[in-house]
Amino acid sequence: MPTPPMTADVDLYRDPAVFEAERAAIFARSWQFLGLEADLVRPGDYLAEVLAGYPVMVVRDEARGLKGYHNVCRHRAGPLVGEAKGRCDGEFVCRFHAWRYGFDGRLREATGFGPVDGFDPDGFGLFPIRVETWRGFVFVNLDPDAGALAEALAPLDARLGDQPRRTARVRDSHPVACNWKVYVENYLDGYHDEGIHPALAAEAGAQRHEVHVEGEVALFEASNPQGAADTLWAWLWPNIGLSVYRGVLLLEHMRPQGPDRTVIDHLFLHEPEDPSVDAAILNAERIFEEDAWINERVQQNLDAGVFQHGVLSPTHEGALFWFHGRVAQALRA
Predict the structure, then answer these.
(1) Where are the beta strands (DSSP E) in the chain?
(2) Which range of residues forms the domain containing residue 84?
(3) What does pTM read for this prediction?
(4) Which residue(s) pair with 192 in the sheet?
(5) pLDDT tens digit string along 256-314?
(6) CB 191 within 8 A of CB 209
(7) Are residues 207 and 310 in the same domain?
(8) Are residues 101 and 177 part of one domain?
(9) Each residue of 12-22: pLDDT tens digit?
(10) Do 137 and 159 fall within a single domain?
(11) Same structural domain for residues 251 and 207?
């Protein structure tokens, strides 16, 4: 008798050692969303964030390019910038001992350090990271050998086509007491819409059951074309959801904080003076609250130790089976 597709081992959702392995094997080797190019206009403008435990920053340099670095001084690991967004006047100054770095990453001055035999400032520049942009979004990657962002997003680019220019924005962040994979699996699963999101299922006229995976992107197809008008749901490996719904573009960044903690960042982009935006955002927030509620209870049950394995539906949950394989592949690499 054939064996049905099964859920992943429960320890993958609660073991601190697994989480640390995922930080190195997945989040240090994948494209992570940082912010918007619109916030990096002048030389010295910067964005900073802690992504899966890695403090990173991106700055607009004097040549109008973007440079990315780990937000860590080479002296004693102090931070170069302390805010999520701001501006530096011509250089980075460590918040700890005031070591100074150019936007090219070179150490300009070890302030007040004194003479030290064998100390070569040229060997103490900032640790660089990769920076690429897509449709005004800024992404970073800690892996110098990773493939290009445009290549990873090509299937999504083709599906989006020409979009109206959305410049107005609303941002918020929400902690959720669950493993990041629990939240991702929820996002990849249209099977739950009728149970958790009955209003969404009724309005769309179709559940998001059909998922097509192209490279690093999962694209959701509604089975009823009338229900899919002006609607897109997509997901980018390993932790970014993107949707267009009621004219509002929502980027959802699922940032892991620990084995059972995730922060969900929402970025809503819409056209200025769009009268429907408030209703669209309220709808998205309601859907998030419904998802957060069920995901936290799933995590509680996983932590309880009774549940070990479940079964997946090839019809409705094929994307989860693919996701489990992609995680396993990354951890083996």
Answers:
(1) 32-36, 45-51, 54-60, 66-70, 85-87, 92-93, 100-101, 107-109, 128-134, 137-141, 168-176, 210-214, 217-221, 232-236, 240-245, 248-258, 261-270
(2) 32-141
(3) 0.92
(4) none
(5) 999 999 999 999 998 887 888 888 888 889 999 999 999 999 999 999 999 999 999 88
(6) yes
(7) yes
(8) no
(9) 999 999 999 99
(10) no
(11) yes
